[in-house]
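Example for tutorial group B:
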């Protein structure tokens, strides 16, 4: 027995340095996790009722609360949590999103692996698109939210946050621009639209489809889009841009009040048509500031010369100086024009930016 113990002690003396060396060469899995910033802006995903009694929900949950509801996240990434805003999506402003973009650009340059933005779905598609215009980095940015608040049966927030984090730290999502993750679907910011007011599957990409899906909990991509040209920060110049929608028999009286704007987007019928009485007034406005012609249909493109039936056809309107908005739906065309104007872009730069979407 004593002899065996001596051999054991000798073996331990030999093995201990080797074990220490292996430990140094093989750091814990935790140290190898990618880094992700989770930025909470509020919205339904962060909403809860004030107590057990009657009363509607309002933004009350923090980024820490959202992450605590998803224990699996501790195995996915080293998370940095920030409460950037705690407001409904309808209250967000352009300057809020510009500030988010500046933060993302800074942290991407410092090496953060990926970013998740949680917010209200009311404006999610617009926020994602504006971020896509302003964000300069290669690291993935994934915007998500929830259609059911945390106290509802079947709340979808936790699953959406998990999907967003897994996508944000995926190497395959790099250089894909800003993505939207909801209901296990991944959408490109430039195409995604909210198409239902209450359904958990409220988002779609008409004319394009999702760029990917979460399959067995992991992002799988079907195709990638080239990054759209970016708009440089800061957005220093004040500007006002609105959307005017063509309607059957609409008189367009609001066009007379549009002269105080810095830019205008027309949500036209079909492939780019408006009531004939609108045409002269739109031409007059286009001689003073940028007026962009888009389709109110939500998919497809404004045409350039198929219809030439006179005042109000796309041929007539483009001839009067309106800018062809191409495949951009009206709200995103507004954001592109607004960002360009606020960055100080000239008419040539604006024309070129919209030409990229034809």
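The residue assignment follows.
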């Amino acid at each position: 027995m004593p002899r065996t113990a001596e051999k054991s002690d000798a073996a331990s003396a030999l093995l201990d340095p080797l074990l220490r060396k292996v430990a140094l060469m093989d750091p814990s899995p935790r140290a190898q996790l990618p880094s992700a910033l989770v930025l909470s802006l509020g919205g339904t995903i962060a909403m809860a009722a004030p107590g057990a009694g009657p009363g509607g929900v309002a933004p009350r949950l923090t980024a820490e609360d959202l992450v605590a509801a998803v224990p699996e996240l501790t195995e996915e990434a080293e998370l940095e949590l920030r409460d950037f805003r705690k407001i409904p999506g309808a209250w967000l402003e352009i300057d809020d999103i510009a500030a988010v973009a500046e933060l993302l650009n800074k942290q991407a340059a410092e090496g953060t692996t990926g970013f998740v933005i949680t917010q209200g779905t009311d404006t999610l598609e617009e926020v994602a698109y504006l971020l896509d215009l302003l964000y300069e980095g290669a690291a993935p940015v994934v915007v998500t939210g929830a259609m059911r608040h945390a106290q509802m049966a079947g709340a979808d927030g936790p699953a959406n946050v998990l999907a967003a984090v897994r996508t944000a730290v995926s190497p395959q999502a790099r250089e894909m621009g800003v993505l939207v993750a909801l209901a296990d679907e991944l959408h490109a910011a430039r195409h995604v639209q909210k198409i239902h007011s209450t359904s958990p599957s409220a988002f779609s990409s008409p004319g394009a489809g999702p760029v990917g899906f979460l399959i067995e909990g992991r992002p799988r991509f079907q195709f990638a889009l080239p990054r759209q040209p970016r708009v440089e920060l800061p957005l220093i110049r004040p500007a006002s841009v609105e959307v005017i929608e063509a309607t059957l028999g609409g008189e367009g009286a609001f066009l007379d009040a549009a002269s105080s704007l810095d830019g205008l987007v027309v949500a036209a019928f079909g492939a780019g048509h408006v009531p004939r009485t609108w045409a002269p007034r739109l031409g007059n406005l286009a001689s003073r500031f940028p007026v962009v012609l888009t389709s109110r249909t939500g998919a497809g493109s404004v045409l350039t010369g198929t219809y030439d039936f006179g005042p109000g056809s796309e041929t007539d309107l483009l001839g009067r100086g309106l800018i062809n908005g191409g495949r951009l739906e009206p709200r995103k065309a507004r954001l592109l024009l607004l960002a360009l104007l606020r960055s100080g872009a000239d008419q040539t730069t604006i024309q070129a930016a919209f030409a990229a979407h034809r």
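The domain at 29-221 is CATH 3.40.50.1170 (Rossmann fold). Compare this with the pattern of hydrophobic and polar residues in the output above.
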